[in-house]
Amino acid sequence: MADLxxxxxxxxxxxxxxxxxxxxxxxxxxxxIELGDTMPPVxxxxxxxxxxxxxxxxxxxxxxxxxxxxxxxAHYIANALLPCxxxxxxxxxxxxxxxxxxxxxxxxxxxxxxxxxxxxxxxFYR
Length: 126
Hints:
By secondary structure, the protein is α/β, with parallel strands linked by helices. It is 24% helix and 27% strand.
């Protein structure tokens, strides 16, 4: 079984494949975290002691979310430790190009209806 760890997102670098996440979702998650709610762990691969990457390993891609980007950003905003399952192998999103990596602190929050509608049309939002 994979190891469960808690990442301090101010001490390590965490990268994901999504460039943007939805503002209302992240706000709701971060408020829950600040109130003491616990979130399911995200799946990561350890690249080196200072760098981790979100991975889809362990997820049924077509039934579950894209690997915890909203949860990771919410934990970063709430300045809370992120629960993670460390996987041995990496599984990338089939929609992610090679070297498609975004640092969690640089992921864009969007709340416009136009952006939501554009993203909803992408096949992995159906």
